[in-house]
Write the structure tokens for this entry.
Amino acid sequence: MTGRDLLLDMLSYRRPAGSQTERQFIERFIAPTGAKPDGYGNYILRVGEWPILWSAHTDTVHEQGGRQRVQVCGQTAMVPDGSNCLGADDGTGCWILLEMIRAGVEGLYVFHRAEETGCNGSRYIATHTPELLDGIQAAIAFDRRGYNSIVTHQVGFRTASDGFALSLSEALGISSLQPDDGGIFTDTLEYAHLIPECTNVSVGYTGAHGRWESQDLAFAEELRDAVIRMDLTDLAILRSPFDPLGPRGGGWWDEDPEVSELGTDLGPDPEEWWWDGEDGLHYGEPELYRCDYCDDVSGDTYELSGGRVCGRCVEELV
Ligand SMILES: [Zn+2]
Ligand SMILES: [Zn+2]
């Protein structure tokens, strides 16, 4: 079974984290790809060499396990009654990964466990088996509502550069998908200190976690086709990995922020690291000040008792 039939079949499984039905879902749909479980139960499959991690999660926020009837109205799938949600979050993401595997799209596929209970599966990987991610340049989750997001920030922290998001938007060729700085938690946030570009892409569900959750089937198919067609060498890798949530284990950012490239850089010049003379290295938009001595505006300024001066003037003054 493939395509829309497969998606609808997958959505009929109610999959609370660790439930029997989640287990059946994994055995029926995911294990047959050859994906193998890690120590936590995340299912992982390597296809080819390309250094991209494709991410989805197998659990849902269903209150109970078991199967459910899925109703299709035109291009929309919903649950008619008797269930607290559809589970397109993130059944649709799992389906996109399966269709990509079938088409031979290269990358490291991770079907995460226990995302809804706090990204526990991805945190296990980041903490216990980070070597799995060695060399990975981008982690792309398919776990976002609506039609508009290529997430650049999760819970307010930058996890992907605008240049990367724009290059992904262009490579996919779906004009509604644009950089979105309003993302919330998903598994790829756990990798923000290990992988340069960590994003989450809209898969066309709305009302996740609720009774009226629905999936736009046509959008899911359009996105699947776009990902399978996409030229992965077009993605711009611009961000340096650092931990937006602060110290966790070792240092919180890699020594020298580097700008690396994977294929052609279609994005704008990032220039997003900036040096603040007082507080060190920052990421994101610098706060700009005018130097009281030379009148230059820069993000590299020092607060002195006589006013605020730029990095060049402070050398002469101090
Ligand atoms: Zn989700
Ligand atoms: Zn969710």
Observations:
- The chain has a mean pLDDT of 86.
- The longest strand covers residues 197-206.
- The longest helix spans residues 88-103.
- The chain has two domains: 3-234, 275-317.
